[in-house]
């Protein structure tokens, strides 16, 4: 069953088409990774799905409901949450307040504020610290926790490892097994190919706003992904849906 | 001297009530509401009309007027603040200035230029005082006004810190786009914020009407003192408004001891000193204004 269906999606930044004719299905419970060079349109696609960037053409269907111009806050109510690039915590709210305000949407489920403190135990001591005093890893953990306490059906993780040390990234990614357990669907944007191949079920590669490679992770080689990533042989790659 | 200082502090409570709504609107919505004083005068006239028609005390009248002020706040947010703020805070400043002119003239058309007061509706409260001996008299209304300021500001502080809607207001104030991404309806939160600000404006109007006389054009002076208290105290914490009001009240009271014009000059000097320090320290949030302007132009 498809959790998310995207058809002929186009998203513009002014006159520039950042996302061009994307068609994509995301199945329930899977971890889909989106890779691509800077400017490939990955984050724009994530923002369009989350509702913070309006699509100029095409449709996005989430759990059978066409999202259309539904604003971002209503998409969260349906169970669609984005952990944005750059974390974007509320700097003058404490860790606890950032998490609590994320839970205010009122979706009951596995994730609670206390559960987040259990999973990211490094946040416990920083519970009452303002978000702008946290380290990068603590900020990322808080940002992920803030999205999870809304108990999403589908969570979009946009470059959650950006600017973090490998050890911290390991800690951040340690949440994925629990997301699988709770059957939460994950779409993640990531630059680290090694990590992507380790954690994802399926990979798509974007180049200049288009999907140039798509396939199950186990069926793709690192070289195939790198070729598609840099656009070396964009027409030779197999499995691209567009 | 003791009486003088006490008088200054209590006057500060009055200014804090005047400034609470102005500071709240700026800190959570980024709006400098130049119609702030005019709306306080509107509230004072509404209380006056209600008291004249029904004979009830303005204190009781507040129970009816404050919800009306909240509704006015929501309407003004949807029709003036929100549309004008999309073009940046400077456009909102111009829009609220225009709104204040319209309100002033509508009040003038309706009520004429005669001064009015709520003092004759509150018994002897406007002039009654406690005698502490040694020539120290403290006006009862001033004390009540000061405690009203503490309750209003304390209430705002509690709301912003502990209530879910308060946390949502703070989150939306810090980043309204991200607030949407976690399920907060920024538009609804802004309407609630405006309603809260206008309730405090209603209380300011009551304080104005009970304490002094007012005319349709009294809003300008009111705005000036509220603005000064806000700048002196800062907008980054709720109690700053009370501190700003007290500093302004003390400066004016002490200034008046030096010369008759010293009342205004003392306040203005402290205001300009605070403004200068804030500009030097860069915490007047000019970056916010510039970023709005750049966003509007892009």
Summarize the structure.
The complex is a heterodimer of chains A (242) and B (298). Chain A has 242 residues and is α/β, with parallel strands linked by helices. Chain A is built from nine helices and ten strands.
Percent of residues in beta strands of chain B:
under 5%
Q: How would you characterize the largest beta sheet of chain B?
A: 2 strands, antiparallel
* Uncertain ranges of chain B: none
Q: How many distinct folded domains of chain A? A: 1
The name of the CATH architecture of chain B is Orthogonal Bundle
Number of helices of chain B: 12
Order of helices and strands of chain B: HHHHEEEHHHHEHHHH
Determine the number of helices of chain A (DSSP H or I, runs of at least 4 residues). Answer: 9
**CATH fold-level assignment of chain B:** ABC transporter involved in vitamin B12 uptake, BtuC
Radius of gyration of chain A from the CA trace? 17 Å
Fourth-tier CATH superfamily name of chain A: P-loop containing nucleotide triphosphate hydrolases
Structural class determined from secondary elements of chain B: mainly alpha
Strand fraction of chain A equals 25-35%
